[in-house]
Amino acid sequence: MSRPRLIVIAVVAVLLALAPAVLGNFGVSLLNDIGIGALVALGLVLLTGVGGATSFGQAAFVGIAAYATAWLTTVHHYSPWIGLLFALLLTGVAALAIGLLTLRLGGHFLPLSTIAWGLSIAMLFGNIEALGSHTGMSKIPALSLFGVSLVDPRAMYYLIWVVVGLAVLFCHNVLQSRSGRAIRSLRGGGILLASVGADAFRVRLALFVLAALLAGVAGWLYAYTNRFVSPSPFDVRASIEYLLMAVAGGLGQLTGALVGAAVVMVMKNALQDLLPLFTQRGGELQAVGFAILFLLLLHYARAGLMGFVVRWTHGRFAPKASSAPPDAPALAHRQLPARGTRVLAVRNAVKRFGGLVAVNDVSFDVAAGEIVGLIGPNGAGKSTMFNLLTGTAPMTSGGVEFLGEDVSGLPQRVIARRGMARTFQHVKLRPHMTLLDNVALGAHGRTGAGMLSAGLRMDRKEEAQIQAEAWRQLDRIGLASRAHELAGSLPLGTQRILEIARALAADPVLLVLDEPAAGLRRKEKQELGELLRKLRAEGVTILIVEHDMDFVMKLVDRLVVMNFGSKLTEGEPASVRANPDVQAAYLGGAVAVPAPRVDEPRKAVAGAGA
Ligand SMILES: Nc1ncnc2c1ncn2[C@@H]1O[C@H](COP(=O)(O)OP(=O)(O)OP(=O)(O)O)[C@@H](O)[C@H]1O
């Protein structure tokens, strides 16, 4: 960690430690509320800010935990610590059930569904007699820790802020881990994650449960801080307040949760004190005040207050990145099949999009250690074929065998984990992640550390291996010196090469490349060609779609040519080049002479199709 960052953390910790000594009861209670709010907002920073799933129902999880522990300790007189376990269990199970039902909803439907369950859970609290209906439950016993009673808010203060500190550390660790890279890639879409062997739904579900558990811890602390629970602090209005905290502080920064909670709580209290001086309708105006703050933030400070701080410091407080790979043993390597054995067999593949037959009864094989080019004019069905064989899209009929096993119908992530890695025609990198993190994501399917072990830093050994692998692959493509730059800062052509490094980090048997040379300069193309030849020499099998005929002809062992969705022919480059049908497909039959170099098939075909 950088020195200035350590100093800032130390100063904040000392100030927080000294605060109860100098603040009155009101100040301490306010800081307690800020700490509890920060825990919920922390979950929202992860879920909404990083993971891209907006929740308007987080207060319901606070409520579930608060009521669970209140009920267990007041009605059944269990220890508050058993109450904590019960509260977290109930919150986790509720989040799992709600997540399973709603997280597959796309677009605006997910936030809408969070409003629905947020409303219904809060209403439920008010309608259950055993939970005190609308009056709630009081006389929650005080907490005690190592024989010390925490009945005094000053004593609770230390517990709350130690928990907040530990929660921030846990979330920070998670974000820097294998799970964290998957979470940070959620906005890149399910296909990207599946291509590295990850299940986007499971990642989102785990994140949803983590955010709910943070809200659950907040609920447990709430119950013992206030020693009274009633339905209203857990309704959708409270959820919106938590969301406002996360937005105000900065959805992209964990520390934004703390800053946002402080801003919203202080503002809420200030409005509560000030508005009655001017009007009797202070309560209503307070809601208007918050609405205006929300609008101003969305217009002028979407990155929140911490976004300003990050920009102001120019990232100087960012953790110091290591400029060398860690010294760690290599990740386990896959046994590559013997050269010449069949790696891939596509059998009578058909794909229909409504009335359009994009792939029509195509069959071909790819053997271990060869480079096969899939070529054809624009719209021939090459990318669709890639999507079918990688499991990205389902076939209408036909089958695919990979390494001797039928993989037709298997999810993309399962096929990826069996050793098929791909790149995309439209590059799918995470622009705000470093080159190193983007490549490390590729090793997801080879490793297994989950969120819990990452949060507790029990994944150190595996993480060092992943980092070492990512450095190795970056070095292979000549980008190691730029490891800590953001992927979005690279030119498009270089981003394509970075995608290859990510695919290589998966230790593939078959590398499926969709137009890797597009946008590359001459020298970069030469280097790419050298890299692919080197990979072939190492035993990696490569299937490549490419429009640059010069590049393809010099590189591949065999070509499969598609036209209008069907296979036109296949064979060695020289024979394919001399094939009149192929020339006709590329040049529309307008020129019947052999074309030794077809530089721009797109233009030729555009002319042909006209
Ligand atoms: N999701 C889709 N829905 C409907 N039609 C599609 C879809 N994807 C592809 N197509 C159509 O299928 C045909 C084949 O497209 P595809 O992208 O596979 O061709 P291609 O050979 O990869 O072309 P290019 O070289 O331009 O990338 C095209 O007519 C395209 O419009």
- Anisotropy-based shape: elongated
Q: State the CATH class of the largest domain.
A: Mainly Alpha
How would you classify the helix and strand content by structural class?
alpha/beta
Strand order of the largest sheet: 8-9-10-5-11-12
N-end to C-end Cα span: 61 Å
Work out the strand percent.
5-15%
- Main beta sheet: strand number and arrangement? 6 strands, mixed
Q: What is the total tally of β strands? A: 12
Q: State the CATH topology of the largest domain.
A: ABC transporter involved in vitamin B12 uptake, BtuC
Bound molecules: adenosine-5'-triphosphate
Low-pLDDT stretches = 589-610
The assembly state of the depicted protein chains is single chain
Task: Please give the domain count.
Answer: 3
Describe the structure.
InterPro entries: AAA+_ATPase, ABC_AA/LPS_Transport, ABC_transp_permease, ABC_transporter-like_ATP-bd, BCA_ABC_TP_C, LivM-like, P-loop_NTPase. The chain crosses the membrane at residues 34-53, 60-78, 84-103, 115-135, 155-175, 205-223, 243-266, 287-310. Residues 344-589 form the ABC transporter domain. It comes from Ramlibacter agri. This protein has helices at 3-22, 25-50, 58-74, 80-102, 109-127, 153-175, 178-184, 190-195, 200-226, 236-249, 254-278, 282-300, 304-313, 382-389, 412-417, 435-441, 451-455, 460-476, 492-504, 522-538, 549-555, 573-578, 580-587, 601-609; strands at residues 144-145, 148-149, 342-353, 356-367, 371-375, 397-402, 405-406, 420-422, 510-514, 541-545, 558-563, 566-571. The chain has 610 residues and is α/β, with parallel strands linked by helices. The protein has three domains: 3-313, ABC transporter involved in vitamin B12 uptake, BtuC, CATH 1.10.3470; 342-419 and 508-609, Rossmann fold (3-Layer(aba) Sandwich), CATH 3.40.50; 433-505, no CATH class. The strands form three sheets. It has a six-stranded mixed beta sheet with strand order 8-9-10-5-11-12, with helices on both faces. The longest helix has 27 residues, at 200-226. The radius of gyration is 29 Å and the shape is elongated. The N and C termini lie far apart (61 Å). Residues 589-610 have low confidence and may be disordered. The protein binds adenosine-5'-triphosphate. Adenosine-5'-triphosphate is lined by residues 353, 356, 358, 376, 378-384, 425. Residues 353, 356, 358, 376, 378-384, 425 line the site of adenosine-5'-triphosphate.
